Amino acid sequence: MSKAPHSESSRAMAPAFTRSKPKMRTLVAMLALVATSAALTFGCGAALAGDNVTEDQILRALSPVKKPPLTRGLSIGPQTETEPAASSEESKFVQTIRGRTTRSLSTSEREEIAAIAKTKPNIDLEITFDYNSADISQKSMASVQALGRALTSPDLKGSTFIVAGHTDAAGGETYNQDLSERRADSIKRYLVTKYSISGPDLVTVGYGKSKLKDPSQPMAEVNRRVQVVNTENKTTASK
Fold first, then answer.
1. Fewer CB within 10 A of the end CB, N or C, for the chain?
2. Tell me: the pLDDT tens digits for 56-96?
3. Residue-wise burial string across 126-164, b where 16 or more C-beta atoms lie within 10 A, e elsewhere
């Protein structure tokens, strides 16, 4: 069986390609250097998620940012009139989801929780679980314990926190939704049992694979995470 002939265009380009080998080597070397630098940069940014985080790191991430008092008469005057109302509505909503079971949350409520999370102090924890299970793995136990200590600190105790479970894109939507809910529940159960945190202070929600942290890499570990959010909604019962 005879070999298929090369195309005319490939034969015509061969000499030019051969002559440009030194330039190609230089280009390849430059690209390799850029790729290595990018990998190192990404590695530094992702190190916190992969390693066991400390209580201090969680405290800093979840502590509310102190805002300067708004003053009437400034150019932002009209906004100062609407912000208290918006804050009041948000607080009312948080009160309605306190003490609710994870599975009782509607799709619209889950989306509203996600919207709140975008504007509040939060941290993503790479907490792993046993295979096809909601049991916290031993290697992630230190991070969960650090979370428990942080949430019971004087600075954070009494706030309502969102504990949101996320999965990667592997598997079906129903399976991942159920798994993310069970894993969020598992974290809450551990914190309530081991650190005596009030159950209603922890609002658990599952998002399955619907909110990937890195959509460009849907199967990446960074997507398998537990996000903790401080709603900054203090309750007198837990103070």
1. N
2. 999 999 998 776 555 444 444 444 344 566 688 999 999 99
3. bbbbeeeebebeeebeebbbbbbebbeeeebebbbbbbb
Same structural domain for residues 31 and 91?
no
Q: DSSP H helical segments within 133-238, as ranges?
A: 141-151, 173-195
In this prediction the pTM is: 0.70
Dihedral sign, Cα of residue 231, residue 236, residue 237, residue 239: positive
Task: Tell me, yes or no, whether 206 lies in a domain.
Answer: yes
Sheet with 159-166: list strands edge to edge: 122-125, 225-234, 159-166, 202-206
At 187, list the tokens.
Answer: 């974290």
Give the range of the structural domain holding residue 37, as residue numbers without chain letter.
12-44
How many C-beta neighbours within 10 Å does residue 55 have? 17
Residue with tokens 């102090």: 121
Cβ atoms of residues 105 and 163 within 8 Å: no
CATH number assigned to the domain comprising residue 112 = 3.30.1330.60
Does residue 161 sit in helix, strand or coil? strand
Number of other CB atoms surrounding residue 169 within 10 Å: 16
